[in-house]
Amino acid sequence: MQIQIHQEDFQLDALAALFWPKYQALFIADVHLGKTEHFRKNGAAIPQGIGSQNYKRLDLLLQKYQPQQVYFLGDLFHSDKNQDWEKFEYWIAQQNTRFTLIKGNHDIIPDFLLERSSIDIINEWRKDGFLFCHHPQEKETDFVICGHVHPGFRLRGHARQHLKLACFYKTKNQLILPAFGAFTGKHFIKPQDGNEVFLINESSIYPLKFDDSHQSA
Question: Do 203 and 14 touch, CB atoms closer than 8 A?
Fold first, then answer.
C-alpha cells in the first residue's frame, strides 16, 4: 500500500516492512532473531520452525523490492549470541544487499560480530527531513520512523467479536513500524484524533483514520 509523508512516497508492506522507492531502501523493525532459542535455553517449550519464518519473509521482501539498502530499526537479535546467530551469519553471507543496523535496546551482540558480517552499525539515520531510529520520539524538526513498540490494534465487531492485528501506527510526526519477528508480542495502541492505523491482515493492509473519536476506513 502506497502512502505519502511530507511529499515522499513510501510503500507499506503486509510483511511488516516499509520501502522508500526514492532510495531503494527497505526498513524492518524488531526482528528479534534468536528469541526462540533464548527461551528454549531457559526452559520454555517453543515449537520448532518459528524462527525460520523470519528468513522466509526476509527472502520474499528482498526478492520483491530488490533494495540497494536494508535498515534494521533496532532489536535485530533478541539476546546474547546463541545458535541462531550462526544461522543469521550464513543467511546474510548469501545476500548482495547492504545492511545497516540502527541499534535498539536488545542489540547486545558485540559490534565486531556484526561488522564481521558486513553490517554497518549506527544509532540513527537522517535523510530529507526524516529521522530513522529505534525508539519513538516526537520531534518538530524531523518526521520520525521507528520501531520498539510492536504496535497492535483490537478491531472490535458485533457480539464481542474482535481481532488482534499488528499494524503501522502514524501520528502527526511519527510512523511506528510493526514488529517483524514471528515470535513477538503486541502492544495494543489507543489512537487519538488525527492518528492513522494501517492494519495487517494476512497479505493485505487496511487503513483506519481516527477523527473526533470515530474511526473510518
Answer: yes
Residue 61, C-alpha cell as written in the block: 521482501
Taking only the tens place, the pLDDT of each residue in 8-55 is 999 999 999 999 999 999 999 999 886 555 444 554 444 555 567 889
The strand pairing partners of 164, in sequence order, are: 154
Q: 159 pLDDT exceeds 60? A: no
Buried b (16+ CB within 10 A) or exposed e, 160-191: eeeeebbbbbbbebbbbbbbbbbbbebeebeb
Phi-psi region of 68 (alpha: psi -120 to 50; beta: other; left: phi over 0): alpha
Beta bridge partners of 77: 33
Question: Residue 31 domain-assigned?
Answer: yes
3-state secondary structure of 147: coil
Which pLDDT value is given to residue 39? 43
Range of the domain at 19: 2-148+172-193
Q: Which CATH number characterizes residue 43's domain?
A: 3.60.21
187 or 42: which leads in pLDDT: 187
Summarize the confidence of residues 179-194 as an average pLDDT.
Answer: 86
Domain count within the chain:
1
**Whole-model pTM?**
0.88
What are the residues facing 211 on neighbouring strands?
214
Q: Is residue 81 part of a domain?
A: yes
